[in-house]
């Protein structure tokens, strides 16, 4: 059987605020963590060895990463070329320029003609020859209306109508690809997309803006033996009947706190025509740890916080401490004491949330009979939420982007903004 390693969502170069500079290398420790995880995957691919590596998209946080981050990524992937392992690099939303044409950060691999490398930046079927036989891979990069339509075709339509059109067009294009398949060899669909029924890292989420999703039924066709996905950071198989498996391997490192409780890893696949086995393999990634404690009723709030810290294993972890406290208790808690208790952590943040005894009065700016623009409303709201001060700038910027229709934002249960 043909052996494949399927990984996705590397996001190399993100989450630097959770790391620190390593004095020995001058690099952010989170870059080193992400490189280590990727190296683990590539080591595995070479050691087995696999016949093919499929990368499901989102290599970096954006399409123009700094050269040293590009280089760290390339140094790992070139080992696959050296080992004669075919590789498909699919273009995710983070790899595209905002104009939506081409995979800016990944197209260099095609330009350089790296042996055995394919860059999937359009819907196309590639036949790949391996030592164990041939197979074919349909690449389905991140789609936006701009990729499939000209502006006049979508002008005046609602977002929902555009999405409906997009699905119809995609269905036609996929149908075309499927008809051109070689029925004698195994087929994989490699896509960067949000599939219907995909659950995000957190259980409840609010998707706003361009929530373009593709129904699983469109992907799990009988002609396809394995659907390899990227985009969602939590590992999952969307087709419980497993014929074919529709698998997100998830990200290879925790990108933010919304992924605190998720296992991270890659997927090993064995495939021949009409038969597929797959298994999720976990990676030894750095721990994230949230310590949340309400000490507003405690007589000795500092002792209560220290006790909450001691309950968690924080060594080498990325920790955030959030404690609820009344304003008159604040002087009883010494930041230096908390910092000392957290010093075993790799990195930590401390946030005190003030518990107000009084109910908040209604904001005069939002009174009855007044109309207010969405951004102004958000800004007024944020100005009155002391606990959200830190997020204010980020939220306003995200809201502007959303209103301009530029991205998707998910607000997780931890009140975190997560950009997919
Ligand atoms: Mn993505």
Automatic annotation (TrEMBL):
Listed name of the protein: Nuclease SbcCD subunit D
Keywords for the protein's UniProt record, in alphabetical order: DNA recombination, DNA replication, Endonuclease, Exonuclease, Hydrolase, Nuclease
Record-level Gene Ontology MF annotations: 3'-5' exonuclease activity; endonuclease activity
Gene designation per UniProt: sbcD
Taxonomy, superkingdom: Bacteria
Binding partners and assembly: Heterodimer of SbcC and SbcD.
Keyword Endoplasmic reticulum tagged: no
Gene3D superfamilies hit by this protein: 3.60.21.10
Domain (Calcineurin-like phosphoesterase): residue spans on this chain: 2-234
InterPro entries per UniProt: Calcineurin-like_PHP, DNA_Repair-Maintenance_Comp, Metallo-depent_PP-like, Mre11_N, SbcD
Organism (species): Gomphosphaeria aponina SAG 52.96 = DSM 107014
Chain's role: SbcCD cleaves DNA hairpin structures. These structures can inhibit DNA replication and are intermediates in certain DNA recombination reactions. The complex acts as a 3'->5' double strand exonuclease that can open hairpins. It also has a 5' single-strand endonuclease activity.
Keyword presence, Hydrolase: yes
Biological process according to GO: DNA recombination; DNA replication
Similarity remark: Belongs to the SbcD family.
């Amino acid at each position: 059987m043909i052996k494949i390693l399927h990984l996705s969502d590397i996001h190399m170069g993100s989450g630097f605020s959770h790391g620190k500079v390593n004095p020995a290398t001058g690099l952010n420790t989170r870059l080193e963590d992400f490189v280590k995880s990727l190296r683990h995957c590539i080591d595995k691919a070479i050691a087995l060895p696999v016949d093919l590596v499929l990368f499901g998209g989102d290599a970096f946080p954006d399409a123009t990463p700094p050269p040293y981050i590009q280089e760290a990524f390339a140094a790992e992937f070139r080992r696959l070329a050296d080992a004669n392992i075919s590789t498909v690099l699919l273009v995710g939303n983070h790899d595209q320029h905002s104009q939506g044409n081409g995979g800016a950060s990944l197209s260099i691999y095609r330009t350089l003609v790296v042996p055995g490398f394919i860059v999937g930046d359009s819907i196309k079927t590639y036949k790949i020859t391996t030592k164990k036989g041939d197979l074919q891979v349909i690449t389905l990069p991140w789609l936006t209306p701009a990729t499939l339509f000209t502006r006049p075709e979508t002008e005046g339509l609602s977002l929902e109508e555009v999405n409906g059109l997009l699905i119809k067009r995609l269905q036609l294009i996929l149908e075309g690809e499927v008809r051109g398949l070689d029925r004698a060899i195994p087929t994989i669909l490699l896509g960067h997309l949000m599939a219907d029924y995909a659950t995000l890292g957190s259980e409840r989420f609010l998707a706003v803006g361009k929530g373009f999703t593709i129904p699983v039924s469109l992907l799990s066709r009988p002609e396809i033996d394995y659907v390899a996905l990227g985009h969602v950071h939590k590992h999952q198989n969307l087709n419980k009947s497993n014929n074919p498996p529709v698998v997100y391997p998830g990200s290879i490192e925790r990108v933010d706190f919304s992924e605190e409780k998720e296992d991270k890893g890659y997927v090993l696949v064995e495939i021949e025509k009409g038969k597929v086995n797959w298994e999720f393999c976990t990676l030894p990634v750095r721990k994230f740890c949230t310590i949340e404690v309400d000490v507003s009723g405690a007589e000795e709030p500092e002792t209560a916080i220290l006790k909450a810290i001691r309950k968690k294993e924080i060594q080498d972890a990325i920790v955030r401490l959030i404690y609820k406290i009344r304003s008159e208790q604040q002087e009883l808690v010494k930041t230096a004491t908390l910092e000392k208790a957290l010093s075993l952590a790799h990195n930590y943040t401390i946030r005190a949330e003030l518990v107000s005894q009084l109910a908040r009065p209604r904001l005069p700016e939002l009174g009855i009979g007044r109309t207010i623009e969405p951004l102004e409303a958000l800004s007024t709201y944020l100005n009155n939420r002391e606990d959200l001060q830190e997020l204010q700038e980020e939220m306003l910027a995200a809201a502007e982007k959303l209103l301009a229709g530029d991205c998707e934002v998910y607000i997780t249960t931890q009140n975190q903004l997560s950009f997919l």
